[in-house]
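Example for tutorial group B:
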């Protein structure tokens, strides 16, 4: 177990450095550190699925995270036009950074259990804190981003050792929820 954590941390660090490219350097601002923590949380989630050789989990994570991110972008650019606390633009609600950051620990929590999600939850909370502290978002923006992540995690992620499974199904004219139990 200890080796898996170290491998996951290494994968997360590599993922973060690739995502940031040449911009990963010392002396960054608090907002930049929030960005880094968001990438680290996502790298952690992907690293866990790779270390577990859980390719179904990888697909579920990508579905839930990308679906949540797309929904957040549609809400903030097409539906709700809330001005940011710093006045930069009107794309404050919900926070895309919070959506991205909270997708990782929520996935890990549901798929592998709460103990494995503690560090990613810390990273996500730090990301949310930096978004509010740097006046890019209000607290309710961050909470809404986390809620969007929770919804998509619930819809697309199943526990790795599942005895009970619940999933939504949508068609052009209906929506339903299905459940199965293994004995």
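The residue assignment follows.
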């Amino acid at each position: 177990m200890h080796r898996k954590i170290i491998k996951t941390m290494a994968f997360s660090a590599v993922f973060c450095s690739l995502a940031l490219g040449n911009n990963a350097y010392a002396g960054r601002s608090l907002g930049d550190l929030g960005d880094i923590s968001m990438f680290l949380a996502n790298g952690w989630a992907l690293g866990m699925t790779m270390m577990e050789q859980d390719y179904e989990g990888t697909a579920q994570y990508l579905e839930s995270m990308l679906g949540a991110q797309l929904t957040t972008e549609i809400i903030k650019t097409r539906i709700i036009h809330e001005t940011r606390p710093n006045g930069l633009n009107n794309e404050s609600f919900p926070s895309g950074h919070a959506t991205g950051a909270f997708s990782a620990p929520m996935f890990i929590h549901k798929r592998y259990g709460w103990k494995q999600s503690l560090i990613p939850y810390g990273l996500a909370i730090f990301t949310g804190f930096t978004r509010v502290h740097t006046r890019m978002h209000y607290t309710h923006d961050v909470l809404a981003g986390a809620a969007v992540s929770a919804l998509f995690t619930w819809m697309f992620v199943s526990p790795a050792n599942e005895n009970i499974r619940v999933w939504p199904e949508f068609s052009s004219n209906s929506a339903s929820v299905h459940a199965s139990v293994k004995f």
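The chain is about 65% helix and 10% strand. Compare this with the pattern of hydrophobic and polar residues in the output above.
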